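Continuing the batch. This is chain 6 of the set; chains 1 through 5 are on the previous pages. Same settings as before, nothing changed between runs. Recording input and output for traceability.
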Amino acid sequence: MSDTDVTTSTPDPAEATPPPAQPEAADPEVASLKAELASLRADLEALTAERDRLKDQALRATAEAENTRRRLEREKAEAVTYAAAAFARDILVVADNLDRALACLPTEPDTTLKPLADGLEAVRRELHHVFDRHGIQRVEALGQPLDPMHHQAMVEMESDSPPGTIVAELQPGYRMKDRLLRPALVGVARARAATEETRAATEEKGAS
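Output for chain 6:
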């Protein structure tokens, strides 16, 4: 081999492979930013929950205020509508006495009683006109089925009408618009008791 020949040598693998990279130490500034971000997220969640709670509170308060307003308006309207209910009940006694006075007069009064009868009748008509203006109406009774909401049964009476039908009105009832001032005192029908002849005929029919 000549002096000019170049000797080629194979590099050592251990020398050619670079050493493994070492993990860089955490940057303190990045860690601080991450911690701050986590804190801000927690604060945001807390504020969101507080906002939802206050919103729910406000909605409930608004609904309660609206319900209170409507109730007060209804109570005010009822107070205006039925303000005269107690007075009307007292006037019903006057109407009853007026009707009794007219009922005591003869159907065709003589010249002495006729002015009195005409005067009482005029007062009765005017009183019922006042009732009409204030929505005071008489409760229907005769011929109607007994309604515990408007009628008070005082006596049962034998009648050909169906049992439970009102066949007598002892005292008229009145209502003011939708409110009952007083119930009508009534007598209701009951089935007639069987007579001796009817019982005998029934027994004979059954025996045959």
